[in-house]
Structures are given as C-alpha cells and as structure tokens.
Amino acid sequence: MEDSFGGSSSKEHDKCSMKEQDQLLPIANVGRLMKQILPQNAKISKEAKETMQECVSEFISFVTSEASEKCRKERRKTVNGDDICWALATLGFDDYAAPITRYLHRYRNLQLHHNHHQRQ
C-alpha cells in the first residue's frame, strides 16, 4: 500500500522486514559463534554481527538452493546431508565439504550406535 508520498506504508515495510528477518539466522547465535573464535576481550560491533548474519545466511541459502535443485532433478522432495555435502563440493567449497562429510558420517554412526543401545 502506498502512502500519499508515493512510498510504502510503514505497515507494508514492517511486513517486508519481517520476511527478510525470517530468512536470516538469529543474530544472537551469529554473535555467539563469532565470540567463540575471537579472543575473550574482543568486542564485536552490531554492524559486524549484522554483516556476518547476512553473509552466512546467504551462504546457507546458496548451498541449500544447489542441493535442492539436485533433489528436484532427481524427483526427490527431501534434501539430506549428502545433498548438502555434494552441493558444497560442486560449488567449489572443498575445504568445507570434506570435514562436513566426515562429520555427517560420524553423526550417522553415533545415531546407529545410540539406536542400537536403546533397543537392547
């Protein structure tokens, strides 16, 4: 809805902002992750957190989109961990693909081990 000055009303602007915010990782989580890698006495500006929030959210969207396209071509509806690993490698993020593939393999083994012990 336009106001008398030709711009969007604040209600519409809030709606768009909410949609955009819903697509970003929570800023508190981003800040917490950033703090883990920095020295304890380091401070992180709000602008730095917001910039990182946008970058990591875009990265996740980029990789997920590639994995989703693979699933679509294979007529599957569910993106799984292997698809994400494939997408990372396909997009040239080999430095991430290998460790995440190892992590996924370890995670699945732990799940199998856990499920096996629950049944006994």
Automatic annotation (TrEMBL):
Record keywords, A-Z: Abscisic acid signaling pathway, Activator, DNA-binding, Nucleus, Transcription, Transcription regulation
MF terms (GO), sorted A to Z: DNA-binding transcription activator activity, RNA polymerase II-specific; protein heterodimerization activity; RNA polymerase II cis-regulatory region sequence-specific DNA binding
One BP annotation, GO: abscisic acid-activated signaling pathway
Main location: nucleus
Transmembrane spans: none
Entry's Gene Ontology cellular component terms: CCAAT-binding factor complex
PANTHER family in UniProt: CCAAT-BINDING TRANSCRIPTION FACTOR-RELATED, OS01G0935100 PROTEIN
UniProt-recorded name of the protein: Nuclear transcription factor Y
Originating species: Vigna unguiculata (Cowpea)
